[in-house]
Amino acid sequence: MAIPTPDFDELRAIADRWGLGLRQDQLEVHQALVAGALGSYDHVDAMYDESRPSAPIRDSNRPDDPDNELGAWYVKCDIQEKKTGPLAGKTFAIKDNAAVAGVPMMNGSRILEGYVPTVDATVVRRILDAGGRIIGKAACEDLCFSGASHTSALAPIRNPWDTSKTAGGSSGGSSALVAAGEVDMAIAADQGGSIRIPSAFSGTCGLKPTFGLVPYTGIYPIEWTIDHVGPVARNMSDLATFLTAIAGPDGNDPRQPKAPSDIDYAEGIEDGIEGLRVGVVSEGFGWENLSDPVSDSIVEASASRLADLGATVETFSMPEHRDALHIWNVIATDGAMWQMIRGNGYGMNYRGLFDPEQIEHTKRGWETKAHLVSQTLKFVILCAEYMADRTGGGAYARASNVRPQINAAVDRALQKYDVLCYPTLPFAAKAIPSSDAPVDEYVARALEMIPNTAVSNVTGNPDLTIPVAGGQGMPVGMSIVGKQWDEATLLRVGRAYENHVGGFALSPMAQKAIAGCST
Predict the structure, then answer these.
(1) 454 within domain boundaries
(2) Which among 205, 307, 346, 516 is least buried, having the fewest CB atoms inside 10 angstroms?
(3) What domain count does the chain have?
């Protein structure tokens, strides 16, 4: 459809907004110039329409409440294209910020509600090509900007260990479904901990890979430099097989210029950790007014158990660990505003595969439904716009320029140690806030758990969380961080620990579900 020529009043409003100081006769000339330039826009639209794919026909449905006890499903479907492959016989949930062609995608938000993608995300395509069976989209937080599970537009997502508690976010549905035994594995995404937070709260294994290892193509972005996507599973063997199937460049994601390909992450996973050097980061413990001493002590004891397996374990100080949270706060707040909100998810100024229909759907959503977004997103908008008015992006630039200091500190530590350990989260899962909770409580519960997880989003290092024990009846996670592109070592450490404790504990829901499948 041809783009209409702007009328004079529309151009005058733009000129006045920017203080361009154009006289009427000058503006009339510019009106003609703009009209001429729109021909290129029309031409590109015609080219795109000729190549635009049509969505496949795939049935899906929103499950009834009795069939969605945890609120962890957005929609159910049943898609399998091959019966053989490394993922054959396994079931998968896809976080609802990743496109499954022909299946509704809401990204936990009224802003995107009603959108149906036409192309599978790369990770979805790779699961299907590897023989996996996708049985639904996992619910997530409102545009994925929360580390707890109470901001989703439809309903809170509940923890399968205790349904009064948060499942974590933003990939709460992905981890809850795995932890409950409803699926074998799930796709999750992570900008500040959103793979690892729900995994730690729900007792699953979650891996945030090295920045760019797994292609983000077809997944709703938040901030280009901290976007990660990765696997969630109940054991290390499944996690390694899953990562092998989805890792490697796809040619469409600019986050992947250095990503390796064709690595079998299951190879060597049983080799043990004899002689490995483990550094326990002291700054990951004892966050004032936040850390639970019980959770801290569980992780400290669990890290020490690696010595029983032949590793050398010692505690050391890395002050930059605590600087990282402040850098993340600025990058995630200002960067998300420019890309996710102003840029309708994708932003501009990089080469990659975009989703123009999703961008335009998001634009209409912000124009008509902004009042319906979570209090967390409203906080981000207010803070980011205030700083944009004051600095025009200078604050983001300063955060980006000091970011390498955190990378350098982590790199120095990883020259001495093979992996670093600390609590994934400062505390075990808390109660889900009430629907009428005060704004300060609502926002605090959404963001307070990220001080340790945010570090690896700043640096891009791989970060694995494994369930190490229960704290006050709820799971506790330990983070294992390694050198960039060295996921294999993390998986080997996680597997050694898993073997040492005789396997990771399953939620009562998972025990029941797995028992039912075996009878």
Answers:
(1) yes
(2) 516
(3) 2
